[in-house]
Amino acid sequence: MLQGLTAAGVIGAAGCLGSDSGGGNGYAAADTTDAESLNFIQVSDQNTSDRLALTMDSAYTITSDTQLFPLWLDVEDTGDSQVYVATLRDNLQWGGDYGQMTAEDWVYLIQEVHQGTDNWALSEAAGNWAGVTVEQTGELEFQIELERPNADWPFEPVLWGSYCLPKGLLEPYVDEQDGEGLDQDDEIQELAYTGNLGAYTFERWERGSEFTAVKNDDYYMTELDAEDFPDYVSEEEIEAWQTAPNFEEYTWHTMSEESPRMTALEQGEIDQTNVPSTRVERFEGQSDVEIMEVPYSYLTILAYNQRMNGWEELRTREVRQALSMAIDKVEITENILRGYAETAHTFQPHWSEWYDESEVTQFGEGDSYDPAGARDLLEANLSSDYGYDGDTLVGPDGEQVTLTLVYSRGTEATETTAEFMGEELSALGINIEFESVSFDQLIPNYVQNSWQGTEDEQPWTGGPNNDGPRDNSASSEDWDLMYGINFNTYPRTPAAIDAFWTERAPTNYYGYVPDEDLASMFETVRTSTDQAEREATMAEIFGILSEDQPVNFVSMSDDIIGYRSRVDGPKEEFGQSWNDRTWAFDEA
């Protein structure tokens, strides 16, 4: 789930802060937070993936026209939507002494790491590969067999966007089941194994500041002939890939404060960054900056911590409903976000073909924004140890109930929204304490959790973000509410959202345990050949999620990105960055 999470307010920003300010051939991008780690096995955030993607292309990508575009490999359905064959290109070379990338590398990684015993490597992709059989069928070919047919599988985040590691690098750590050692390996953290696998080669990483990669003169794409590309690719597009990349250097800058980022874009010190909705007017009429509103699949949530280190009452559906009912989403989207967002009530954008509004229960908009009704609902469903003393909600100790709302710092809109939600919840007699942390600290300290019982008691793990049943797993820092993370809704293949909404889901860090058998319903969507049945089942799932309120589904926004006008390549269409390695500066 490398692209499952990203920071709210910085969605999709990709680019670099150029050492050749205002000219030259270095591309610069800036966002508010740094990579978490360069070990792709254990990470789940977009910020890290954006940096890794400079040095590694991944298995394949999906175009904005929903076509599968082979990068390292092509994958084909054998005809039954259950067995797929992956075929690697023959010109892929690892760095160091690891030689050619082969099918053996892929099968070894999948079997020994993603499917490893007790998820010893803390693989974020473990859930994706559960129940999947892989077999090497040739030096450059391996076969993937699913438990059940799934025609959407190539478009789900399993093999799509996946990275690999050389078997020779992995073997010592697999033998010792040493996940910590693997994470600390110098070749992992310095990306020394990437060879010709990406458009750029890692040069330096100054944590919290700058990640820089330089043009890879051995980039495998430059060696391809026209027949190595899919038929739908035009001659112009082929030539663009054969001459990529067009920048001598590509740098990601971490700029936690909003104003300096906007100034850097305005003055030409960076070529690309996300622009908060509150800052769009600043660039109107400026010929050197182009603002694009790109359709985006990420949804912003207020998470309710249902684990052992969260407020236990949040495990009650009606309590979560009451909190959601007390927060005015229209005020957030129209005023705080300046109309550049729309309210959300379940885990799918309104423009998705899978969205069925008739199944969705609303909280926080129109008549469903009802603070008085929220208090009544809360009072009726809290355990007997809680009650109101006048307008104050008090707990078993007779003191006012205090909840901790942690949010990611970096954008004014995120902070303002968090504070607004806190004020709304205060009207229910709850004291809200705020904690502001950087996104790269939010993930390891608040999102990731670990098993608190004895090792022989742990019945299962979904990975570092869901390390076992909620009664015995918790993050290192306590929290009750969390704002500032966006979730990918996967509108092309919505069954992929089971990564968030089943008990053992790899991204279920908030400890949601659905009453309904959502896992079976997701399986129906994946395996059914009846499109009407698939649509009806997804509509039912979205309805259950809207009523259960495992999180408050707050809003969906377009991705507002500012580019220097000299950048040639970006488009205002969903999935527009699939070919960003071919982007260039306009010579005019």
Give a verbal description of the structure.
This protein is α+β, with helices and mostly antiparallel strands and 588 residues long. It has two domains: 33-254, Periplasmic binding protein-like II (D-Maltodextrin-Binding Protein, domain 2, 3-Layer(aba) Sandwich), CATH 3.40.190.10; 296-559, Dipeptide-binding Protein, Domain 3 (Dipeptide-binding Protein, domain 3). It is built from 16 helices and 26 strands. Strands 1, 14, 15, 18, 19, 22 and 23 form a seven-stranded mixed sheet that branches. It has a seven-stranded mixed sheet with strand order 9-10-11-2-12-24-13, with helices on both faces. Helix 2 (103-114) runs parallel beside helix 4 (167-176) and helix 15 (518-527) runs antiparallel to helix 16 (531-548). The longest helix is centred in the last third of the chain and has 18 residues, at 531-548. It is globular, with a radius of gyration of 24 Å. The two termini are 40 Å apart.
